Amino acid sequence: MPVSGIVVRVQQSRQQQVKQLMEVMEGVELHPACTEELLVATLESTDYRQEHELTDRIQALEGVFSLSVAYHNFEDMVDA
What we know:
By secondary structure, this protein is an alpha+beta fold. The protein is 26% helix and 35% strand.
């Protein structure tokens, strides 16, 4: 199961909207380290395809400037 730590840079005026949309996404956990321009989250998915789809959905949200992966663990996927 891939697990990633991400940082999402957002437009300040849309931060609350983006945060609310991310909070209801399955596999996304927002962290309190969020600021007015940055949202910090953990993504958990069953496979790489699902993780890629999730990051694409987040990047497509109105007000999102960028998504950066700060941490990625996939050691249990080596044999998959």
